[in-house]
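SUBJECT: protein chain
CONTENTS: sequence, C-alpha cells:
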Amino acid sequence: MLPLEAVLNGSLNMIGYGLATLGPGLGVAWIFSSVINGTARQPEARGAMLSTAWIGFAVVEALAIIGIALAFVIQ
C-alpha cells in the first residue's frame, strides 16, 4: 500500500498535466484558424502559410510531449 503523499502527488501531477494540455490545444487551434483565415483572404499564399503552420504545430506538440514526459518523471 502506497503512502497517502505518494498517491496525492501522483494525482496532482496528472491534474497539472491535464490543465497544461489547454495551452497546446489552444495553440494548435489558433495556428490552423489563422491559416484558414489567411487562405480565405489570400488563396494564392496557401502553400507558404500551410508550411509555416506545420512547423508551428510541431513546436506546440513538442511542448505537449515534453509536458507529459515531465508529468510521469516527477511522480
Observations:
- DSSP finds three helices and no strands in the chain.
- The domain at 23-73 is CATH 1.20.20.10 (F1FO ATP Synthase).
- The CA atoms of residues 34 and 72 lie 33 Å apart.
